[in-house]
Design goal:
InterPro entries: Sig_transdc_resp-reg_C-effctor (IPR016032)
Radius of gyration: 22 Å
Shape: flat
Helix content: 40-55%
Structural class: mainly alpha
Largest sheet: none
Distance between the termini: 49 Å
GO molecular function: DNA binding
Strand content: under 5%
Order of helices and strands: HHHHHHHHHHHHHH
Length: 325
């Protein structure tokens, strides 16, 4: 049986918003962005708007400027109708980043606000991805619109099928491209980079490499998600304090938020493809802390030559992974 799509409610979310999201999910089964009879934005207006209004009334006025549309006197659903679901997610992520940089003091009220907005942003994204139980394919495109829409299983890019359907829905594909695309079997599991078989029929080495490292990818993604959700203290739960410290300081240098699922997945893929092992993470955090190679070797109980070799291998590692300013 196909697993029902669920909406993630972040730990610490406002109880009123949490209850509204749970009620929303209980009723959203027939609703979607494609349905005329059951438009999902109408359900947002009915259930989510009143909950947001009640929550915002309990906060200082300055907080309203960090919720899309609310600062301008608009309802949440009204803003979605105006800009669309995808743009709403991008806009809310930008506002939340600005809040974290300028207002967030990590107090209980600010932490609850962040968790609440993360939950609402996730709801909007899930609404954008949700499809009706029964739907018809776009005219002229011989594709099943009920196939999986979402991220590539191996990175943070949209699958070939999801990317194509998004393009079709935006009416950004010309007739010639539609005919060409109809001849391809678009993957609903992988993006263009990671599709198992290339267009010329040959096996894709990028797919094979990424598939072999899938377990490590999932592990790094889990660590990034945990640390991103609670930045104030090390949260990666790797089992090694040095590795946890690496993720803590790494995430402090990022503006990505938990709702930025694609970006987090791409960062996890970058760590794996860069062969950034836990040993290298240990060495990086100790070097960042000011220890020289001999001190690092002594701390880790390894030879200094091993530290030197590891640091040399990091020369080609993307700068964002190296904990440097």
């Amino acid at each position: 049986m196909k697993k029902e799509q669920t909406i993630t409610i972040w730990e610490g979310c406002d109880p009123g918003i949490s209850k509204a999201i749970e009620h929303f999910q209980d009723r959203w089964h027939p609703y979607s962005i494609a349905s005329r009879r059951y438009p999902i934005v109408r359900l947002i207006q009915e259930i989510i708007d009143p909950a947001i209004a009640s929550y915002m009334e309990a906060l200082p006025a300055r907080y309203s400027g960090f919720v899309s549309g609310v600062g301008a006197g608009m309802d949440f659903s009204e803003t979605i109708r105006l800009v669309g679901f995808d743009a709403m997610v991008r806009l809310q992520r930008q506002l939340l980043r600005h809040f974290v940089k300028t207002v967030d003091k990590q107090g209980s009220r600010d932490q609850r606000f962040v968790a609440t907005i993360e939950s609402l942003t996730g709801l909007v994204w899930d609404c954008a991805c949700k499809r009706p139980k029964k739907s018809t394919a776009t005219t002229g495109v011989n594709l099943n619109a009920q196939r999986k829409h979402g991220f590539c299983e191996l990175c943070g890019e949209l699958t070939e099928f999801a990317d194509f359907m998004a393009t079709v829905s935006d009416e950004q594909v010309n007739d010639v491209e539609l005919q060409d695309r109809k001849r391809l079997e678009l993957s609903h599991q992988y993006c263009v980079r990671h599709r198992p078989i290339l267009a010329n029929g040959s096996r894709n080495p990028a797919y094979r490499q990424a598939k072999r490292s899938l377990a490590q990818f999932d592990l790094e993604l889990e660590r990034l998600n945990r640390q991103c959700a609670k930045r104030a203290t090390p949260q990666a739960a790797s089992g090694d304090p040095l590795v946890d410290r690496y993720f803590y300081h790494y995430m402090l240098g990022q503006t990505v938020q938990p709702a930025d699922r694609g970006e987090l997945r791409n960062q996890a893929r970058l760590m794996v493809d860069s062969k950034l092992s836990d040993r290298k993470k240990q060495i990086l955090i100790l070097q960042w802390s000011g220890l020289n190679q001999s001190e690092i070797a002594q701390k880790l109980g390894i030879e200094r030559q091993a530290v030197s070799k590891a640091l040399k291998s990091l020369a080609s590692t993307p700068r964002m992974l190296l904990l440097k300013e």
